[in-house]
Amino acid sequence: MANNTIMLTLHYLDENQMVQVAPGQYHSLMSLIADQLAIPGFGLCCGMGSCGTCLVQITSAGSNLKNNVLACGILVNDELANKIVLIPDKIY
Ligand code: FES
């Protein structure tokens, strides 16, 4: 049976917030973060990969690998399942 939800963790200001979303529920990882955390200044910029204000890191539990990504260009799909999204404390 297919699982129709995606579980992931948002890490911001030393706190983890687990979220469960449906594929396609959000236009992008940026809109998911903006909706779930309401970070001032986050997600209020270009939305098309040119300003860099949505820069986050994606990692997995127990992994030292952190991939820098622009959240506005990341689809919310199974590739994010069980990932940890590290959001910088300061948004530029
Ligand atoms: S919002 Fe500008 S690069 Fe993502």
UniProtKB/TrEMBL annotation:
GO MF term list: 2 iron, 2 sulfur cluster binding
Residue intervals of the 2Fe-2S ferredoxin-type domain: 6-91
CDD domains, A to Z: fer2
SUPFAM superfamilies cross-referenced by the UniProt entry: 2Fe-2S ferredoxin-like
Pfam annotation, one family: Fer2
InterPro entries the record matches: 2Fe-2S_ferredoxin-like_sf, 2Fe-2S_ferredoxin-type, 2Fe2S_fd_BS, Beta-grasp_dom_sf
Source domain of life: Bacteria
Name of the featured protein: 2Fe-2S iron-sulfur cluster binding domain-containing protein
Organism name: Mucilaginibacter rubeus
Taxonomic classification: Bacteria, Pseudomonadati, Bacteroidota, Sphingobacteriia, Sphingobacteriales
